[in-house]
Design a protein that fits this description.
2 helices, 13% strand, alpha+beta, 79 residues
């Protein structure tokens, strides 16, 4: 399955993105474009799980925590 791109004539704002209904398809707002990603492959999930365990073990000794999936807001005006 390929990544789906929204209508390129639509400029998405952070406020519009946050108000989208929850779906099973991961969505990202990148440079005012809505991008929907397919489900990760089995290999991707295996690697992600291993990385999670390694990071969790490394950070737990200093009181850190690891959360997946990771969500990041750069600023209110995504360029």
């Amino acid at each position: 399955m390929k990544t789906l791109h929204s209508d390129l004539s639509k400029v998405w704002t952070l406020e519009e993105f946050i108000q989208l209904e929850e779906t099973k398809t991961p969505c990202e707002l990148v440079h005012v474009e809505l991008i929907m990603s397919p489900r990760p492959t089995t290999f991707h999930q295996e690697v992600s799980g291993l990385l999670y365990m390694l990071l969790s073990n490394a950070t737990s000794s200093v009181g850190g925590k690891v959360f997946l999936p990771i969500g990041v807001y750069i600023d209110k005006h995504l360029y």
